[in-house]
Write a structure and sequence with these properties.
Largest sheet: 3 strands, mixed
Number of domains: 3
Strand content: 5-15%
Number of strands: 6
Structural class: mainly alpha
CATH class of the largest domain: Mainly Alpha
Radius of gyration: 30 Å
């Protein structure tokens, strides 16, 4: 089923809205069920609330399950309250267990228990199992809808299994081979199965080199493993190698988006506040701790400037270059921070090592500082009184500041990572403020030392 182009989709939407308005159920279903699932979700989101009851009436619980899974969490919370309890229970029975677990984990416990009680016992038990695993672990991320086969099965028998169980499975591109105790012993790709003779046994075509993850493995490690091995899915096993689920690549994409959002939140000192659905009050509450902390760092910056008040009173022109020193230090340090956080996240840091990374960033800072210093030494004498001495003070200060700023931007996230914390919490604003303070100390120290050589 292909997505329609913009013009065709609008025409379909108009026809569907018209059918709903005229209460023409058959026409509505004919047009709506031809849409790509993504377009179905988009159309539902475009509906006015007063039209939704008719939508639920026309679609079966099974048909609506795919639409519900495509909605954002806040939309799901709103929609589930509009549904009849029986209809909702039927819808959850047709959803993937991991999607149900994700939803129930975000709503209040009594409501979650009511939903589980209304579901079929087998489906509910799978959801309860997923909810028992720690958040952001492979167990919590995995799906229970997978196909396992035995080593003694023939290719023909496996094809029959696929016909019967395939429609309910999350993916059929990998088939996992288990022994009598459900322990993972091999894997067979659908491609290998199709091209092998029907009488061939699985044990002769399976690979025993299976890449798997333990149920309590962190979801970020699972995502990295699937990325490194170019897998469509990774089997999840217990500590005794019993196969209990799989993590698919689409789940990993969600994880990567989630982890990137978390890192961005930390990096910008706005943890949890980037969601546009939260209120202004909630956003302010989440941002305020960092802002208040940085405000106190700002007082330190002000104290540094105050400490050199006499220098500024004698040579007022020095104040002109304070923003230049601070901005350059902050920007360079933040760039190094971004490079280091990225290398830690992708694993390239482990391959290259700390010394190599620091040497590279320091070398980058030295070259950037040298370029900026040369430009300033050439330009400043033409724009300001003070001649080459003033230009040298600003140029050398900036050279030293940028060299040191890159090291700070590189070392701080590594130190935080060694403490088993997320290196992204070494946020841009934090690094910027620290480098501002050091930059000003360097600048005013050099200026004070050369004060006698500056014209009053």
């Amino acid at each position: 089923m292909n997505r329609l182009n913009e013009e065709a989709r609008e025409q379909y939407f108009d026809s569907i809205f018209k059918a709903l308005k005229n209460k023409e159920k058959n026409i509505f279903l004919e047009y709506f069920l031809e849409l790509h699932p993504t377009d179905q979700v988009e159309l539902f989101q475009a509906l006015y609330k007063d039209k939704r009851p008719m939508f639920y009436e026309y679609l079966s619980a099974e048909q609506f399950a795919d639409i519900f899974q495509g909605l954002e969490l806040e939309e799901q919370k709103e929609v589930v309250l509009e549904l009849d309890k029986g209809y909702a229970a039927g819808m959850f029975n047709y959803m993937q267990a991991d999607d149900i677990a994700d939803f129930l984990a975000e709503i209040n416990e009594p409501h979650a228990k009511d939903i589980l009680a209304a579901m079929d016992k087998e489906e509910a038990d799978e959801v309860i199992e997923l909810l028992s695993y720690p958040d952001e672990s492979a167990g919590a991320l995995m799906t229970k809808e997978f196909i396992s086969i035995k080593a003694g099965n023939t290719a023909s028998e496996v094809m029959d299994i696929l016909r019967n169980e395939g429609p309910e499975a999350e993916t059929i591109y990998y088939l996992y081979v288990v022994d009598e105790k459900d322990k993972l012993v091999g894997v067979v790709s659908l491609r290998d199965l199709i091209i092998t003779p029907l009488t061939e046994k699985v044990e002769n075509i399976m690979s025993t080199q299976v890449v798997s993850v333990e149920a309590h493995t962190d979801q970020e490690e699972v995502a990295q493993l699937i990325k490194d091995y170019d897998l469509l899915a990774a089997p999840v096993v217990t500590t005794t190698n019993e196969l209990i689920g799989i993590v698919t690549v689409d789940d990993v994409m969600d994880v990567l988006e989630e982890e990137a959002t978390e890192d961005f939140d930390d990096f910008t000192a706005a943890k949890g506040a980037t969601d546009v659905n939260i209120t202004s009050f909630s956003a302010a509450k989440k941002r305020s701790p960092w802002i208040i902390m940085l405000m106190f760092f700002g007082l330190i910056t002000a104290g540094v400037i105050g400490r050199f008040e006499e220098t500024l009173e004698e040579i007022v022109i020095l104040a002109v270059f304070i923003p230049l020193i601070m901005d350059s230090a902050g920007n360079t340090g933040t760039q190094s921070l971004a490079v280091m956080v990225r290398s830690l996240a992708t694993g390239s840091f482990e391959r290259k090592g700390l010394l190599h990374t620091i040497k590279r960033e320091f070398g980058t800072g030295v070259m950037l500082g040298l370029i900026c210093a040369v430009v300033l030494i050439i330009v400043i004498p033409f724009l300001y009184e003070g001649g080459l001495v003033l230009a040298a003070i600003v140029g050398v200060s900036l050279f030293l500041t940028l060299s040191i700023a890159t090291i700070i931007g590189a070392v701080v996230p590594v130190a935080i990572n060694k403490l088993k914390l997320d290196p992204a919490i070494a946020s841009g604003p934090f690094i910027t403020t620290v480098n501002d303070i050091l930059g000003l100390l360097i600048y005013f120290s050099i200026a004070t030392a050369l004060l006698d050589y500056l014209p009053r």
